[in-house]
Amino acid sequence: MGAQRLVAFLALQKDGAQRAWAAEHLWPDCTPGRAAGNLRSALCHARRACAASVVEAVGQSLRLAPTVRVDLHEACRAGDEVTAGHRPPPGTEAGLIDALRQELLPEWPEDWLVLEREGWDQLRLHALETLAQQLQADHRFVPALQVALAAVGIDPVRETAHRIVMEVHLAEGNVASAFKCYQHYKDLLERELSISPSQQMRELVEDLMPR
Prior knowledge:
InterPro entries: AfsR-DnrI-RedD_regulator (IPR051677), BTAD (IPR005158), TPR-like_helical_dom_sf (IPR011990). This protein is mostly helical. It has ten helices and three strands, in the order H-E-H-H-E-E-H-H-H-H-H-H-H.
């Protein structure tokens, strides 16, 4: 497990990490000497696990070998392209959507993953929402709904994802579904946070409201 944690940690450090810094983050409850020993053991296990080199050590620096492919890096690059307004290349859309649905090392309790998870979640939320809007513009309403609902699943109280779901329903002419989505979100906010949806969201259904 120590070798797995080390490889995962280095995968998130694109420029590598100093030995002492890596040991401190991977074994925060240990003394510096003990943490350094754990790091040496993890390096040894990582070298034994694969025929090819996975971790490179240069002086006091550690990094993944240049030949190692990190799927998270590829998903982040593709997500950045989508949020910049570019459509996925032909044949890559399904793979990108599947990648954006994935959590970052779920169930790992590591403190050093907290900010990394937050950054990944924000990127995939924005990418999924942008992709859903692109699909809606192409009148591909079923995948647009699926992608928008994937964003809702990541952060259920985030309004923009719910708003896109409503917009897709309205584009299809399903006003009842749009209103039902609004009411469900309104009840969620009142129950969980004691606040109301924004004016921007209310304007989507104000003509559907009972007078």
